[in-house]
Each structure stands twice: as structure tokens, then as C-alpha cells.
Amino acid sequence: MTQIDTSKVSRWDQHGREHVVRVHRTGVQRTIRCGTCGWHRSAQFLPWLKAEEHLAEAHQATVDPTAA
Q1: Full DSSP string of 6-27
Q2: How do strand 18-26 and strand 4-12 relate by DSSP bridges?
Q3: Looking at the DSSP assignment, which residues form a beta bridge with residue 32?
Q4: Residue 4 confidence (pLDDT)
Q5: Sheet of strand 4-12, all strands in order from the earlier edge strand to the far edge
Q6: What would you report as the CA-atom Rg of the chain, rounded to the nearest whole angstrom?
Q7: What is the pLDDT, as a whole number, of residue 65?
Q8: C-beta of residue 61 within 8 angstroms of C-beta of residue 19
Q9: Distances (CA, A) of 2 to 5, 29, 33, 44
Q10: Using CA atoms, how far apart are residues 17 and 27, in angstroms rounded to an integer?
């Protein structure tokens, strides 16, 4: 049976807008997709790091809402 898992990486830009990249996992394969611009790519290793890089580069969204 194939297991599907989804997680997300959220960051805020300097204007207070939230940007979210979702990480979908099916087996060992992971796909990352940006909810703001539709950008997506396949990433087997470090998908969350790649999601953070996309948010910082494409949307200047660097504020982590989970940081203390």
C-alpha cells in the first residue's frame, strides 16, 4: 500500500503576507509545490531546505512564524 504524506513550509514576507510551499511524499519520492506562484519540482533529498530557498529567493519571504 502506498502512503501519502503532506507537510508545509510557511514563511512571511516584509508586507505580512504568508507564503506556503507544500511537500508531498509518496514512498521515497517528494514533490514540492508553491501555493503562491505554482512553482514545483521533484526533490528526493532535503525538500524542506529547497522549499525555504524558493520562498526566500522568489518571494523574499524569510520570517518563520514558528520562531520564538
Answers
A1: EEEEEEE-TTS-EEEEEEEEET
A2: antiparallel
A3: 23, 41
A4: 64
A5: 4-12, 18-26, 29-34, 40-42
A6: 12
A7: 76
A8: yes
A9: 10, 11, 20, 17
A10: 32
